[in-house]
Amino acid sequence: MKAHYVRPLDLRHGRVDLNHGAGGRAMAQLIDELFARAFANDWLAQGNDGAVLPAPAAGERLVLATDAHVVSPLFFPGGDIGSLAMHGTVNDVAVMGARPLYLTASFILEEGFPLADLARIVQSMAAASRSAGVPVVTGDTKVVEQGKGDGVFISTTGLGALPAGRELGGALARPGDAVLVSGSMGEHGMAILAQRESLSFESAIVSDSAALHGLVDALLAAVPAVHVLRDPTRGGLATTLNEIARQSGVGMQLDEAAIPVHPQVAAACELLGLDPFYLANEGKLVVVCAADAADAALAALRTHPLGSDAARIGTVTADPQYFVQARTAFGGQRMLDWLSGEPLPRIC
Amino acid sequence: MKAHYVRPLDLRHGRVDLNHGAGGRAMAQLIDELFARAFANDWLAQGNDGAVLPAPAAGERLVLATDAHVVSPLFFPGGDIGSLAMHGTVNDVAVMGARPLYLTASFILEEGFPLADLARIVQSMAAASRSAGVPVVTGDTKVVEQGKGDGVFISTTGLGALPAGRELGGALARPGDAVLVSGSMGEHGMAILAQRESLSFESAIVSDSAALHGLVDALLAAVPAVHVLRDPTRGGLATTLNEIARQSGVGMQLDEAAIPVHPQVAAACELLGLDPFYLANEGKLVVVCAADAADAALAALRTHPLGSDAARIGTVTADPQYFVQARTAFGGQRMLDWLSGEPLPRIC
């Protein structure tokens, strides 16, 4: 049964007000005329406090992953908080080796935020959802007073199905394993920083934000026995490798010259005194697999448009101190420690 | 493998800083020393980007529900944002008729927020999780700059298992059905308002925040064919009944004198010019069932401590305008429309 509202929502000049989160008719209208229309699917149309979903196939386990998204600015070259919230959580499910099935979304809106911007974000998120084939099946909307939020925050949770027998995890790297990346490092982080600092380059640096489950499928079809998959987001490649090293109780020896970095990102890093290996990625994989499977993994990654610049960047070592080190272009060694010092907040 | 930090987290005098959300060592320490310790379970200990969970039993479907929690103040009589975030989402899963299995939690923290307060919230949430028997299996933490948030926001997503053949939903109310509530209306909303406005009463009005899955179990064991279950949160009883009326294409006729309201809540409403039927509840059920099952349903609710004040409050009617009406104590009729006018923001 559809409700009738006196006037349609003014998506051109209207603004978010406290009524949009208060549970009454204004909230119902925002949900009907914006969210439900953009994300249209049968589960959302159930209109209950939760979505009823079919069970996974026999033998499959479930994977749950969640992320809060607070990126600032909300719009950036290559995406916005809506597409990022979709991709970020689809990727967290995909790197567990699972097939992403459904997403939930909860929005925290700031009073006064333009409905036109909200509509742009929701439509971008809906487009990313359709393109990934992962529907947003239930959601929630809250509104906080002006000055108590920052436009829009979006938390997404993903549910996926993990095939029987598939075991991936950060604790499964073994000395001798090969370390691969699916492409160049640092584009998302630098796109956000450049936008935030109003830096202009000859051509804009574009976020790599993308849904990675297709790339993961291509990889695991070729090399089912991948040991670790991760998407190197906050803290970048260096921090992600340190997490894996700590979880697995191993070290890593990288070859810095082998790690792909877009020349514009390298130049911007030089200018800003930043290290691209600490910048966030939102559409890249780190892969750890047995050394004898590395060539097949690399070939599989390169067959997919999102993996065309895939590279083998190093080796897992036996190291009781779990150090991640890189041979520099000049033949020296440098430590890639965890991210520390100046934080780069609100990158995702 | 455990990491070693130079100094333990200062949970007494420390404050949230941007490093706690930046993905590096400070974030890892916050997760290790606060979140992982409080929520300790095997799934969280997997330490990956998502949690791997067993599939539900054969024949069961899945239920997903999500909520953003932005309640202000963060601490109130009867709970805090931590226990509320747990109960709110467990209840959204339970009112679908499903057994709540797992929760995810994403935190948006404001720079400068005292770690002692955060620890209190996380420990309260963990206690609510243990008491409900629903573990927090994966999570995320982000930090926003001072003045861009409001202490703590928590989004939770619940996954539940729905037994074969069970069908509950807002669209299933039929003319002639009985309408029941599990207890008195408006305590949560009034507890928050009283705290916010520094109202003092002879004794504090305490939020009814509670996990309802045990009460739902008791009810459905006695009356498997319940048509609709809802927890009347934002917008209160009146708004929830209007939602059901709209979804089912029916009206409702209530008996105002039959709707339980705690005398202190009634007095405070009188004082503030508020209607208790529009105040949020966080530990109450609305039940719609066949009229001939109403006595059994009421008896089942009353056997449970959370349902001791359960009451039959009205009847579903055939009404092409979907009106929710109440006979007043003076014999008149009044319309209970959707919540409109002054919003009561950030009640949950």
UniProtKB/TrEMBL annotation, chains A, B:
Gene3D superfamilies: PurM-like C-terminal domain, PurM-like, N-terminal domain. Residues 47-161 form the PurM-like N-terminal domain. One of its GO terms (biological process) is protein maturation. Residues 174-325 form the PurM-like C-terminal domain. InterPro entries: HypE, PurM-like_C_dom, PurM-like_C_sf, PurM-like_N, PurM-like_N_sf. Belongs to the HypE family. This is Hydrogenase expression/formation protein HypE. It comes from Pseudothauera rhizosphaerae. The lineage of its organism: Bacteria, Pseudomonadati, Pseudomonadota, Betaproteobacteria, Rhodocyclales.
